[in-house]
Amino acid sequence: MTLTRISNGSCHSAGTTASAYTKTLGDAASAGDVLVVCGHSNGTHAANGMIVSDSVNNVNFSTILEQDETNASSHWMQTFIYKTPVDLPSGTTITFTPYALNTTSTFSLDIFRGATTTVDTGPSGASPAAATTSLTNALSPVPKAGSLVLSFVTFSGGTLTAGSPITLGTTDASTGPTAVGYALGADGTTNYQSTWTSTASNSNANVVVAYLPAATGDASLPPLQLVQTSGLPTPLAPMPTIGPPIPMYVWTSGAVDGAAGPQAYSTTLTGRRRRA
Fold first, then answer.
1. DSSP summary character for residue 71
2. 152 and 250 share a domain?
């Protein structure tokens, strides 16, 4: 399965009160697709206290990592991932719950196909000094070839831009902006450290992580075939049977009686009479 981003970047929103709020998916997601979210909130911090869910599964997304902005801020970022077991139609409601007593919160959601929720390397978070840039950590070890690399960032203001080798995905430019960045199919040698940029100097935080791609079948191997053939070697000595013969099938990786490819041939299971 090819690793692709399928969201159109429309699923993001900002809250103006302390309560949960919603946004609908602009694109349908299929069973097995991976949803990722970058959330931001100030208010009463609780460890992994932000919550994201969808209206079809009604299951809280798993936290990847939370990170305090600039190490001493009342603003935090929390990142999420969830692999949906069922289709999510366009218009599915995403609910984001920020911290209690918050005055600023946002979230941004992206959807990827062909990825897993099995961590390849990371996550690694950073809380750089307040500035217009936010340098992420380098992933160590480097992601395996083909993995999905995700880079998340939040500032306390400004419009966000991703730096190479990360591509900007969904972003919300409200107060306390959030953004999801990505690299489809790691090259196996790059550590995917990058610099996020904001149009305003503010406290900030970022997280980078890589997830393994979905497994694919080996199309180079032909399908197995079950074939009953003749021509088995003659037994060294005849053996009396106990009851009717029992058909048996034996797999072979080579050709049998001129039939190409992996085959199976038949024989019978016999037994020796026991002496009294």
1. G
2. no
**Which tokens is 16 given?**
């103006």
Range of the domain at 140: 4-213
- Per DSSP, the chain holds a count of helices (H) and strands (E) of 0, 19
Distance CA 49, CA 99 (A): 6
Global confidence as pTM: 0.79
Cis omega (within 30 of 0) on the bond before 223? no
Has residue 21 got a pLDDT over 60?
A: yes
What is the count of structural domains for the chain? 2
- At 119-139, the pLDDT tens digits run 999 999 999 999 999 999 999
Q: Any idea what DSSP says for residue 256?
A: B
Type of residue found at 31: A
Contact 160, 40 (CB under 8 A): no
Give yes or no for a contact between 163 and 194, defined as CB atoms under 8 angstroms apart: yes
Rounded to 5 degrees, φ, ψ at 21 are: -145, 170
Which among 213, 229, 248 is the end of a domain?
213
Judge if 156 and 38 occupy the same domain. yes
- Least-confidence region, from 138-142, 179-183, 235-239: 235-239
- Report the share of the chain in percent with pLDDT over 70: 77
DSSP state of 50: -
Other C-beta atoms lying within 10 Å of the C-beta of residue 30: 12
β-sheet bridge partners, residue 133: 197
Torsion of CA 22, 25, 30, 31, to 10 degrees: 0
Final residue in a domain of this structure, among 213, 228, 258:
213
